[in-house]
Amino acid sequence: MKVYKAINSVQTALSKIGISKDRTNSQGSGYKFRGIDDVYNALSPLLAEHGLCILPRMLSREIVERMSKSGSALFYVTVEAEFDFVSAEDGSKHTVKTFGEAMDSGDKATNKAMSAAYKYAAFQAFAIPTEGDNDADSHTHEVSIPLDNTMIDLLSEIGACSDMETLAKVYEEAKLYAKHYPQWLKLLVIAKDTMKAKLK
Q1: In 88-165, which ranges are E strands?
Q2: pLDDT tens-digit profile of 22-79?
Q3: What is the spatial distance between Cα 132 and Cα 18, in angstroms, rounded to a whole number?
Q4: Nearest CA to 128 among 56, 50, 36, 57?
Q5: DSSP H or E stretch at residue 59
Q6: CATH number of this structure's domain 3-126, picked from the four choices 3.30.390, 3.90.70, 2.60.120, 1.10.10
Q7: What is the reported pTM?
Q8: C-alpha span between 6 and 144 (Å, rounded)
């Protein structure tokens, strides 16, 4: 089974050159990390040289919609993936299974999760030299506490108010319930101000 010889050959080459953390997170703590492009650029010539193919297969995908502190939508995606490491010489293979997680405010969460799964499959299979914490994403998203049913009902009540007095009463009730959650309070203020403008 020549797949293991090929994996070892790539591993040997990477043990000498490694993949340095040359990128910096643009938000949060500004930690250093290696992006998926860094992994592709380091691996591609070595895979070609040693006759090793990496073929991905996504087994499952889960998506959860969350809310950022600013109130915008964030899509949190988890993929379960398998990667077949195949020797081009004799067709022998070894399968590596990993998970990838990512968050994005647009349509890139799944792509990012797939890239994360590939990257960590490569890190683990080839034992790529690392330094410091194994942080991967170039952005840090701050996630708020998801709205519960009571909070959703209170927001609906605010939207249904027909006069200022009722609005003030419902708002105070909602504010009391949400006092421990700054993100919810921010939404309440927006909802209240919107209704006040409509009722004037």
Answers
A1: 93-104
A2: 555 555 555 555 678 888 888 999 999 999 999 999 999 999 887 766 667 788 899 9
A3: 14
A4: 36
A5: strand 52-67
A6: 3.30.390
A7: 0.60
A8: 46
